[in-house]
Amino acid sequence: MKKVIYFFSVGIIMMLVLFINSRLSQDGSAITLENVEALAGNGEVTKCPDANYVPNRFLESGGVQSATYRSNEKGEINVGGIIKGGYEKNKDVTVSVETFNCSGVEEGACCDQRKVGTKVI
Description:
There is one protein chain. By secondary structure, this protein is α+β, with helices and mostly antiparallel strands. It has one helix and five strands; from the N terminus they run H-E-E-E-E-E. The strands form two sheets. A three-stranded antiparallel sheet has the order 1-4-5, with no helix packed on it. A two-stranded antiparallel sheet has the order 2-3. It starts with a helix and ends with a strand.
């Protein structure tokens, strides 16, 4: 008889937990849906030409700076993965460089990530 009462009590508790959980998940899903709608903004999506572009961003200059590089035996320096030649061999070379990134924000713009980086001016 004690086993019957025990299993009956456990069954009632499980049904109560399931009922409460279903009520909470219904309320939670409504809140989640409202959050998603709020984050979506006005519903317009910026379409860019391909995956190389970042939507709603534009290319912005980080400014011009002086940088010193050491030339190799061929008279070349490596600036951001780009090799520039014609310098004196094995010497420190100071050049002006400009850095670009997709930090500008503008609705409807597309920033080409292939143009991000540093280049010698």
